[in-house]
Structures are given as structure tokens and as C-alpha cells.
Amino acid sequence: MLPAFLASDAGWRETVGRAAFCARAFAAIGLALSCSFFFQLESPMSSVTTVMIVANPTVGALMAKSMWRVIGTLLGATISIALMAAVAQSPVLYTMMLSVAVAFACLVATFLRLFRAYAAVLTGYTIVIVAAPSYADPDGIFLSAMARLSAVTVGIVATAVVFMASSVRRPDRVMTQVGQMVRDVIAYAMEFHRFQYAGGRSPDAPTKDAVVLGGFRTLPLPLNDRRGALLARISGLMSSVEYAAADTYEISRRVNALRVGLSGLAGVVATYHPLWHDLENDAAPMRGLHARVASLMEEILELTGQPDWMDDPRAVLSVLGIALDELAAAERAEQDIAMLSAIDNMRDVLVQFDAVVRMLVAPSMPRRVRLRWFLDWPTALRNGARGGLIALLAGLLWYVLHWSAGPMLMLYIVAASSLVATTPSASRSSVMMAAGTALSVPAGIACHMLALPRIDGFPLLWFALCMFLAPGIWLQFSPRYGIGAFGYGVFFAAMLDVSNPMHYDDIALTNTWMAFLVAAALLVLGFRVILPPDDRLDAARLVGSLSRALRRLALVLPVAPENWVVWEGLQVQKIWRLAMRLSVGVGPAERQAYTDAALGAVSLGRLVVRARRIADLPSLDVADAQAMRAALRGFDGLLRDPEATARGLVEAAQAILGRAAPGEAGLEARRGAACLQQAAYILRAVPGFFHRHGPLQLSPEMPDAHRPLDAPVPVYTPLLGRVRRQAG
């Protein structure tokens, strides 16, 4: 009978955390507003809007957002002065140039990550904020810029003072989260191997709970769900590390090592996918191998349960080293290709996990090993076109109608377009942002009609503002309503006309509210109607990008540890985006199939790198090295005929095995053949994923657009279209 937040410890901690954040945000609002009145700023509510934008429960995130907000404000003020000076006498030309600036801001905001995106957001936002009071008097543009910069500075300093004074910075909290994430991945691997040694059946769940996707090995639903949850949590933890690095020296010193380590941890999760090679079977040696690895993971899980294991990871590394030595000895004695492939695969997982642990506990990382962030050009260009188009429409609407609320219309369009461009799905976020803005209008009416006329001092004003802003602050970090609550809080503060003394003008206020409603409608029009999203097309582009990256890895990219780390990190970022795109427009079975295939592509990349390294060994026979290199050159036709690439890999593997000497002498050759065999199976399991005419690459109305990924891929010609099916 208790409320939900009282029924569990997690719910209670979340409620207390939100309440503490609200209290600190209210204190920052009061301090910023009082300082604005004390300094007699022209627009005191601008400082409150700044508080609403930069406030964050994490002090590091707040400081970083504040710094980039100042940078964006300075840049926007400079551009605003330059635009006004250049085209003050040509409103249409000014609107066109402003639209170009807004489009560029939206494009850059899509590329940048986390707090850096606020520089682009505030650049476009500040251009209009600074210019709005000067449209009637262009000579006052410089004073307007100084007033805007003053309000932003007051809001940032007030927020920083309140949050830094009331927050206890604990760098060990982030490291504790990193350690717990490592343990969760170990637990997932342990369950996976337990499932494998049980013969492809979950020992804890009936077989009807398994998901069967044409040609794939089955995984129980809990394992599939946990895999996606782990990848999402690793992505969120990488953001937390970035925020902590902006505030804590200990984390900033090792932030690069933590980035690379968490990216590698995501790679470990990606390794455990259903496309384990079909050479595996239910024979006792195979099941015994999985049982040994499962017991190893259980032992490591117990060791990592110690609170100080990250300070002294020698016990964990020692256990991993012993297991790797055992697998190496088993490899030297093994002749069966199925067992050799399984041992090779598991040995690589343990090697990767050993490297991840060493990176996460390292005090620093070489500067040359730096992750690259995936630049989604199609999405960025589309967001830029959306922002520029609706800014142009709003400017022309203002110019044609001579609407006195035109500056407020432009203010919202520019700010909201830039803000939604920073989200993973701008089209969906635009609807939530517009909904939050629409709710802020009746709240603003109620505040002006019911609260402000009865206020006779600053305490009551502070209380009234906090009361109306409370819903937006409370829900701001809700996964479901966050962007809408953010829009409500920011634009409620922006539309209030609070000054000292107060001047009530109902016509002007009504005009402002109408401008915000029209602007919200234009936002949805531009992001959902004029340039609507096409999640299937975006997913197809990401799948094509994964295939091209794999081809480049096999043919062009030099084999070096830092290159592999960067490559894997980029592909994991693509998989995160692919999972989000596939969440709309495709069925659950199809979505899971493409996610599994994408994870298989990352594992295929590991096999390619291992094969290239083996081919470069001086101890390898010349004929074997040439055969491996020729097989890898077959990846040149990966996008045209993945099955031909797989046939070349199998033929090379069989030729190498036919020449391989038994025992230690032929170990490297057998390892290379095992890598080629596993790579061939992944290609044959999902040829439709790698082919440029795969089902996702086709229009949804085409008959082959929803065929299974393991089905033969039709051959297309520019003139005749589909002409035949490839032989299996």
C-alpha cells in the first residue's frame, strides 16, 4: 500500500536525489535573480533561463556546460554584431544569413558530444537574443550584447556557487561505478558460457523462452535483454566519466584510459553474440571448455567483489594469465578444427578482457591511443537543413506580417532547433520540446494573472517562480519526459517579463504567448513534416557503414593496437545508433536479428585482425601466409558478394590445414585457419547484412525488404533489376 518510491531502496534514493537537485536549483534561481536585480540588469530573467539550462546534478557536467555556454555566448554575440553591422538595412538578407548560421549551429550541435554541444546551441541562440532588442535601433547592438553576456555570466556563477558549495565531489564514486560495470560484464559472460555448456539451452529457463531467428544460434531472452542493457549502461558511464573529468583532477588524468577501457568493455559484450561458429556442437569436450570458462568467470567475479580490487588488480590478472596459459597449452595439443576454433575464440575474449582491466586501472594512457567519435553526416546535414529552413520560415513570417512578436518567434525557433539537434532523435525530441513549450504557455498565463500581481517583495517572487518551475526541474532528467520538461522550464522562464518595477502589458504578453505557440508548431512542422525522419534509411546507412569499415579493416587499415581500439570504438558507437534507429519501424525479431549481425560484424573484425597478424608472422610458412593474404583480399568484394568472400576464406583455411604440421610447429597455421573458418561462418550466417542489396537497403515496399538475413541475396543490375539468385 506504500507509494512506489517508498517500496524500494532504489526508488527512495532516486526520489531523494531529485529532491536535492530541485532544492539546489531553486537556491541557484534565487541567487541569480537577486544578483540580476542588484546589478540592475536589463533582462533579469535571462539569468534564470541560464540556470535552467546549465543546472546538472553532476558538478563536473555543470562546470563543463557553463564553460562551453560562455564560449557559445561570446561567439554568438560576435556573429550577431557582425550580421547587424553588415545587413542592418536589408531584413530579408539578414534573415537568410541568420538561417545559414542556425543551420550550421544545428549541424555542429549534432556532431558534438555532451557539454560541448552547448557551444553550438548557444552560438545560434545568442545571435537572436543579442539582436532582438536592437531590431528597432541597430546602433544599440553592442550594449545588447554586453547585457546578454552579463546575464549569462550571473546565471552561470550563481549556479556554480550553489552546486559546488552543496555537492561533495567523490572521484571514487565514478571508479566504483566502473568496477561494478566490469563485474556486470563478467556475470553476463558467465551466464553466456553456462548457456553454451548446457548445449544451447538455458539451465535456469525452459527452452520455450529462447528466441529463434533463422539460422542463428538461440539465446534466452534474459541474455539478449541484458546485452542491450549493458551496452546502454556502458554508453551512459562513458558520459559520467567525461563529466567527472571536467571537475576532478584524478579522473581527468586518466580519462583517456577510462574511455578506451570502457570502449573495450563494450567490445567484450559485443563478442558474446548468437553468431558463434557452427563448428561448435554438444560434444563433451566442447561443453567442458565452456564449463571451464564459466568457472573462470565465477572466480573473477568473486575476486572483483573486493572493494579495493581496482587498486590492486594483480589477483585478477594472475587468474587470467593462468587461464590463458591453459588455453595455449590446449591449443598446442588440439587437432580438431572445431575445438581449435572454440579455444581460439575464447582465448581472444580473455586477452581482450585482460587488456580492458589493465586500461581501466592504468593511471594514464598514451596520447596516440585516442578514441574517435562517429560523425553521422546524413543526420547532421538533415538537422542543419531543418533548423535553417524553419528559421527562414519564421523570419519571413515575421517580415511579411510585421509581427511585433517576431523576435520572440525567432528566439524560440533558433534555441529549440539547436537544442533538439543535440539529442539522438531530433524528430521525436521536437514533439516533446513543442509539447513542453505548449504547457509552459498556460503556466505563464497563470503566473502572470494569479501570482505576480499579488507579489510585493523578492521572497514571494522567488517562491512563485520556483513553484511554477518545479515540474520542469523535477522531470528534467526523466528518460521519458526529460526533453519536454526541459523545454517547459527553459521557455517558461524565457517568456516571463519580470522587471523592477513590474509593468503589466496584457497585449504584449498575449502576443508573446502566441509567438511561442506558433514557433512550437513550426518546430514540429520542420522536424516531423517537411523533413520527416526515415529511421529505416538511417539504419541502412549505418549497416552499410559497418560493412565498409570491415572491408577497409581487411584491406587498408594498418594492423596496430591503437588502430584496432579506434576501429572497435567507432563500430560500437554505430551499433548504439543502429539499435536506436531500429527501435522504430521494424519488428522485434527483425530488430534483434540486425543487432546480432552488427555485433557479429565487430567479432568478424577481431578475426580479420588476428588473421592479418598471423599472416605477418615470420615463422609462418610462406605458402600459408600467401593463402591467408589472398583470402583477406577477398573482402574487396564483401559488399557485392559476401558468400564469395566466405568461400575464399574456407578454401584458404582447408589448404592451410592440409599443409599444417601437427603439434607446436603448425600451431600458428592452425590458428590462422581457425580464424578464417569462423569469419566464413559469420559471413554465411548473415549475408544479407553485408550485401549492398541486403533487405534493409531496399525500400520497405519491395518484396525482398523483409527476408531473413541468412537468405540468399538476389543479384541486381541497373537495367534489369533483380535477375537471379546467387547459388548458396
TrEMBL record:
The chain crosses the membrane at residues 21-39, 70-87, 93-112, 117-135, 141-165, 431-451, 457-475, 512-531. Keywords: Membrane, Transmembrane, Transmembrane helix. Pfam families: FUSC. One of its GO terms (molecular function) is transmembrane transporter activity. Signal peptide: none annotated. One of its GO terms (cellular component) is plasma membrane. This is FUSC family protein.
